[in-house]
Amino acid sequence: METRSHIRAQAFVKVWTVFVVLAIYLPILCGALAGLSKGRYFGFPVRVFSTEWWDKTLASLEIQSLVQNSLLIAFIVTLASVVLAFFGALAFARYDWKGRKTFQKAILLPVFFPQPVLGLALLLWFNALGINPSWQTAVVAHLVWIVPVVTLVIAIQVYSFDSTLEEAARDFGASRWFILREVTLPILWPGIWSGALFAFLLSWGNFPLSLYTAGVDSTIPKWLYSKMVAGYSPMVPALGTMSTLSAAVLLLAGGLVVMLLRRRSMRG
Amino acid sequence: MAVTIHEEAIHGRSAAALPAIPAGLRAAGPVIVLLLLGFLAPLLTVAAYAFATPKSFDVFRSFTFANFSAIFDTSNTVWMSFAWSLAFALATVALLAVIAYPIAYGLNRMFGKWSGFIGVLFVFPLFVSENVRLYGWVLFFIKNGVLDGGLKWLGFSGGPEVLYTPGAILFGMLYVYLPFMLFPMSLGIAMIPRDLVDAARDLGASRLMIWREIELPLAMPGILIGMLLTFVLGAGAIAESKILGGQSVITIAQDIEVAFTYAQNWPLGSALALLLVAIVSGLALYVLAKLDLDRILGKR
Question: What are the TM regions of this chain, as residue ranges (chain B) (predicted)?
Fold first, then answer.
């Protein structure tokens, strides 16, 4: 009896997980269908498939500038947040210092904060400083939210770090920078790469912060939203699908790199 | 303890200023500066605006409670937005706890070598703009959309009208915030030592008893973080009501946005934002104070 109910529970968990995964990807598939169907308005079942809207989207100069903006922001955010979060994660998980518990909690606050409100607050602050919102201010806004996330991602790796390795190197007379380069960084590479991947993808898809802080410089999520609210065109689902696919490819490639690094650091 | 602090104070003064800063603080320095300039300062600006004369921009020059009395004025309907947002957030927390628990359990105990892959399937939506995903549901539920059109094609009379209702908003929130419940919960369940469960079973405890007395309390820190995250995010939700809800319900974040944009009443918007922040961060600080993050994140 015990085992039978156990088997039933296991089957339930499996079926439920499959169901939820399917539900997660259903709307993304709906978007893909809409972007690939011919005609101005979407109807199901799709009568004629065509790449018309994909071609138009790819040829649009406006969309090319959106992609450039989104890429530029995501790129700078990734670089800056990995550097900041690397040291932040050491302070979070590695060093013993008096303010550590406070720091651990303070850094979580931006993550536990409604993003639209954070975006508006930053807009007010930039206004008070006399700074016009642009893609540069959007970079700052993304950092406020993404650095804490990346810090957590790297910190998880730092927790599994054996600090006696650093001490051993120090006993052998290695300098601080030598230890960082030859001992600390190589061990933490998998965490750093995962953090970078998170930073890039989260910035790429971010909407609420960009909406308020990017000013006249539009990003892909911002443009999609403005077209959803007014002036629908099948370019909306087409661009949405393209953006999703690029994120998927990047996640796959990045995930592969992280996996290889993990394997190597386990062997080493 | 008192002695060491005293000694530090003496030595700190005599030593050079830089080496006296502990390594942890030095490493945390850049992040702290970012948080001060990018998080604390904007919040203080909001607070300053909240006490400025309504419909003006003379921040720091006037001080009034007029914005708050406007909010608490019963002839106003702002309190309804607050009520809706908090109710949605509570419902999201309760439902997601039930939806995510079996999956979090499976990720830790059942899926084995598949759990990494399944985890990635749940992470991925985080990287797709929520607008895109919510819009996919519009295409699913809309008239002649995937559901309606599909049912008609199969010979039924068409799909139910769910779009632009409060139910659709709640559904969108469950959908968008699922990963924020799932992953902390999964971290929490990972903290349960297996031998403890085995030992309880050997001693004859029933499955329900093991779950209630051992598994649930040990997984609680992670579950609490998940609940806190989903509540906070749910209370500040805006895209769901705009894209799926079609103005059937105005959430508080939407009221705040309207005050800043169309109404051009920054002080009122700031007062609303400050109230939301007070509710949300009061709760966040209360829960965070009870958690030991070293245990939750370190024990993997």
Answer: 31-52, 82-104, 116-142, 162-183, 216-239, 268-289
ipTM of the complex: 0.88
Q: Is the pLDDT of residue B1 over 50?
A: no
* Three-class secondary structure of residue A108 per DSSP: coil
Contacts of B118 in chain A (CB under 8 A): 17, 21
Q: Which of A86, A232, A124, A92 is nearest to B39 (CA)?
A: A124
**pTM, whole model, 2 decimals?**
0.88
Tell me the mean pLDDT in the region B225-241: 90
Give the residue from A15, A28, A44, A167 with the most B CB atoms within 10 Å of its CB, the best one to mutate.
A44
Distance CA(B137)–CA(A145), nearest Å, equals 27
Identify the pLDDT of residue B18: 53
Which domains are assigned to chain B?
Answer: 77-297 (1.10.3720.10)
Beta strands in chain B (DSSP E): none
Name which CATH class applies to A53-266: mainly alpha
Instruction: Take residue B32 and report the two structure tokens written for it.
Output: 């702290």
Is the CB of B127 less than 8 angstroms away from the CB of A205? yes
To the nearest 10 degrees (0 to 180), the angle between helices B216-235 and B78-109 is 140
Over the stretch A42-97, which tens digit does the pLDDT of each residue have?
878 887 888 888 888 888 888 899 999 999 999 999 999 999 999 999 888 888 88
Average pLDDT over residues B178-189: 91
Say if residue B248 is exposed, middle or buried (CB neighbours under 10 Å; 0-12, 13-18, 19+).
Answer: middle
| B237 within 8 A of B157, measured Cβ to Cβ | no
- What is the band of B38 on the pLDDT scale with cuts at 50, 70, 90? very high
Of B132, B228, B235, the CB nearest to A31: B132
- The Cα of A194 is separated from the nearest Cα of chain B by a number of Å equal to 12
DSSP string for residues in A37-105: BSSSS--SS-S-B-SHHHHHHHH-HHHHHHHHHHHHHHHHHHHHHHHHHHHHHIIIII---TTHHHHHH
